[in-house]
Structures are given as structure tokens and as C-alpha cells.
Fold L-seryl-tRNA(Sec) selenium transferase.
Amino acid sequence: MSDSNSLLRALPAIDRLLQQPALTALAERCPPVLLKEAAQAAVAELRRRILADPTTIDPETLSEEQVAQVAARHALARLAPNLRQVINATGTLLHTNLGRAPLATLALEAIVAVSCRYSNLELDLSDGRRGQRHAHVEELLCRLTGAEAAAVVNNNAGAVYLALAALAQGREGIVSRGELVEIGGAFRIPEVMAASGVRLVEVGATNKTHPRDYENAINEHTGLLLKVHTSNYRILGFSAEVSGAELVQLGRRHGIIVMEDLGSGMLFDLSEYGLPREPTVAEAVAAGIDIVTFSGDKLLGGPQAGILLGRRDLIEKIRKHPMARALRMDKLTLAALEATLRLYLDRARALREVPVLAMLAADPEELRLRTENFATRARQALNSRATLSVVSTPATVGGGALPLTELAGFALALTTDAVSVDQLAARLRRQSPPVVGRIADNQLLLNLRTVAPEEEDALLQSLTKALADTDE
Ligand SMILES: *Cc1c(COP(=O)(O)O)cnc(C)c1O
């Protein structure tokens, strides 16, 4: 039995703690300011516990050596980066909270190659003059889509905003009421139009819009006709929309620009992998749309980016707009985008090496085998600390793309008597690497479609650790 005053007096001094081997061993890796904070935190925690209930404190745990070990753990935790790798076992391929598309190895190598030292970002190596950063991907984009010209910006929201501002500021933009999309919180077509200085003219009804609706709204103030892909919802049943080709006819007749925000922007048709037919970028270009925009990190499977394609004169105008500088793409992204697009020159290679495409096309039977093998390993490792089964459950595309599509597959379903399923999920998120699964029917589901085979060992480790510590 010890009273709190004598225990408090026994707490080690910070500068003495900092001389303990457990902390001096970290000096190379850990900045002094973090070591000191860690030592202070370890002492503060003990002080709190002493004041709360001195009878729970073993005086031996107050030795400099032992407190320094606790401080060392605090220091290591402070060293870990905030933004780090997470294992996505949700089965949602484009999970916006988890960074959307994982990049192809080739894209990562390209980032390293151009960013360790200098690059020809805006230098034309043939004549030594100033070049354009867009030039590194323009030819590739045109080749893959049939477009005349291309520009790239920070993301698709930026691309839509910039195109509207550059092409129709102070004029009217006509949009179908069925296409006034909201993409996660801040991006809503009516608000983006307002911000870019284009007056929104809504036509048609929520479920049906006809060519005559656009035609009746066209006047001398009309700046463009905008078609928006309803990426994250569908209007089913009694519905009608005006196709891109029909809009182009109207636009040509009245000399008005037609723009289409494709959202996801698939470069080739993936319907043979059980996905619904989605308009490809090349089809929109072939239909004669003047400006097409889409994201780099949705179904394209590249870095966060906004891509603009279309008529050369319009692309030039977009590049020259003052906001283009504010939205410009940085060199790391440009390197990753170029490498990803190069993979698309060979479709078979793109399907193997662009992770989003590989996950989309993964064979359910192979997924079942992988999941069953993993379940066997997990049963051995967990040693009956959890109940495991393999269940049939679909994966989804996510990221506001193909909202109704379910990709057939399997998941490892977990429950344990030790903790609730929510607590189990929370523990998995606290591991290193953290694991994010999905809860359904009071079970934790781990879907391997979104887990790379080379992540399986780490997943098993995090799972074992999550079920080992029961001191909660
Ligand atoms: C996702 C999406 C956007 C926004 O694209 P970001 O690249 O996330 O900025 C805009 N429009 C549509 C139709 C989308 O699906």
C-alpha cells in the first residue's frame, strides 16, 4: 500500500527519463521535441492514475527504466505518419474515404522517377524552349479517345468548373432536371454553375426530358448545353433522357457548345466482365460532344485528376482561363496519369496492371478459392478465438460510379464472443496496418476483392493482433 503523495514523489524527472536507453535508442529516428512530449505524456498518465486510485499502482512501474519504456511506445506512436496505408476489405472498389483508386506499379515508378530530382515538366527537350505540362498526356489521351485536344487539371470538379467558366461565363447553361447531380456534399451541378458564373436553366422533368425541352429554352443568351452523367443514381421506370448525339444535333443547329460531364470516364467497354454498358469516353467524343470531362481516379484507375477533351479551340480557351493556373495538375500526378494511360494502349495489360480494372474483372470462382484459403489460414492463426465462415456477398464499385452494379463474390464473415462486432471493427481499424471491413447481419465481413494478394499476410497479422488483445 502506498499513499498518493509518496507515489507522486517517486515519479521520474523528464530529463532523467530522456537519458534512459529505451529513449536514447530512438534519438536517430525521433525528433527531440517528440521524445520529450512522449516522456511527459507517460509521466502525466501515471500521475492521473495515481490521483484517481493510488492502490492500483505498483511502485515498481514508476522506475525510470519502466516509465521510459512506456514513453518509448508513445514516441513510436507519434512517429507513425497520419496518412498511411490501410487494407480495404470493404469490397467497395472506389472508396472515396480510402483514397479511391490504388495506383498501378508503373504509375508509382513514374512518380519516383520524375520527382526525386528535376524533370522536363515545362521544358521542350527538342528545342530547349518552354513547353506545356498538358503536352505529356495530350497525345495519349487523344489516341485513346479520338479527341482533337486535351487538357488536365486537379480533379473533375475543377474540370467542370473551369470549362463552364471559360466557355459560358455570363451566359445561360441548359441542363435536364434529371441530371442536376450532387456528388458528395459540396459538388452539386447547380452550385458549380453558379460559382462559374453560368446561369442555370433547368428543362424537362425529373424523370423525362425531351429534345424539344432544350430547343424551347434556347435563346440568344444560351452559352452551352450541358449533359451530366448520373453517376451515383439512376432514374428507372417511366423515364427518358436526351442522348449526347441528339444534343449535338441541337447544338450544331443553333451554334451552341455541347458539354458532357461523364463523371467516371471509362476508356473501354467492360460489359464482357458483367458490368453494365456505360458510355465510353470515345463514344462521347465520336458523338460530336464539344467538351467532355471525367475523373482520373474513378474507373480510369489513375491518380486524382480532371480530364478535359474536345475541340482544339475550346481546349485552348480553357487552358488560357485565369483559373487554369489555380487548378493545374502537379508533376507527381502528371507522371502517374501518363503511366496509367500508357498501360491502356494495350487493353490486356491494362486489365492486369491497373488495379481498379483487375479488381473489376476478378473471377468470382478465383475469389472464392482465395477466400477459402485465407479462411483456413485465419482459423489456424486465430485458434478458435473467432468464428469464421465464407459467405457469398457482392462487391460494389463505389466512388459514385455504377451505383446499381453488384460484383458477385465472397467474404470472410467473422464473429467473436470476446467483443461486439462494432468493437471488433474498431480494433481492426487500430492495427498496423489498419483494416477496414463491412458490418452486415451482426458479422464483420472481409471482402478480398479489394485486398491485393500481397496484402493477405498483413491482413492476417492485423486480424490476429486485433483478436489477441482483450484488455479493452
Ligand atoms: C465524380 C464526379 C464528379 C467529381 O469528380 P472529382 O474527380 O471527384 O472531382 C463530377 N461529376 C460527376 C458526374 C461525377 O461522377
User: Anything to note?
Assistant: The chain has a mean pLDDT of 94. The radius of gyration is 28 Å. Residues 4-79 form one domain. The pocket of pyridoxal-5'-phosphate is lined by residues 155-157, 160, 181, 183, 187, 228-229, 231, 261, 263-264, 295, 306, 400 (CB under 6 Å).
